[in-house]
Amino acid sequence: MKKLSDRDGKLFFQIWIPMLVEANKKYRVSVLDNGEVFMNLANLSVMKHLANKIWMDDKFIDEYLAKSKNLSPEERSIIQSWKRRVSGFFIIVRLTNNGAIMIGENNDVYQVLGLQSTWDEMIGGRPLPLTLETTLLPFKNSIVSDGLVSLNMVQVGPNMTKSFNATYRKAVEEEKVIKSL
Question: Among 4, 89, 175, 180, whose Cα sits 20 to 30 Å from the Cα of 168?
């Protein structure tokens, strides 16, 4: 049930929270403008709304990179890579030692690491398959989510479960599980 290293988990949020703060300054979604305030669970809907604004198009990323002079080359590279994001609905079909296995809307199969928690910890033992909405991001040589996950409490029947498992097995057999974006 793999997640990022502690160092990389901290790096992710060191990059992500200031972007959300900057998005709030631009789009004025909330009167809150402090990064610490954003980490409060009560503000997840604000954070999700801001993330959706960021992911609407790449213009925000370009503007943010141009404006943020103090970013390290590594941070710039990571933010630039987020233009290759995949947003939408996904189905978690398995939790493995290498991350959560998710099937996207186009039947692509992704291996996704947790940020600071494993996916098993994040979904709280809910039965699989599990549907959710999020944005998948490249992070170094892996895939993570933006940390803003909306679980859908849709019950998946046995026929759909068989279909999802077949999609996963086929991706494994054909070595088409996507591990980086």
Answer: 4
Query: Among all chains, which residue has been given the structure tokens 């954003």?
Result: 38
Model confidence band, residue 89 (pLDDT cutoffs 50, 70, 90):
very high
pLDDT tens digit sequence for 13-67: 999 999 998 998 898 877 665 555 555 545 778 888 899 999 998 999 999 999 9
Q: What is the DSSP string of 56-100?
A: T-THHHHHHHHH-TT--HHHHHHHHHGGG-EEEEEEEEEEETTEE
Structural domains in the chain, CATH included, are: 6-83 (no CATH), 85-178 (2.40.50)
Query: Which residues, in sequence order, are CB contacts of 6 under 8 Å at separation 6+?
Result: 116
Angle at 149 between CA 96 and CA 38, to 5 degrees: 125
Phi/psi at 2 (5° precision): -70, 150
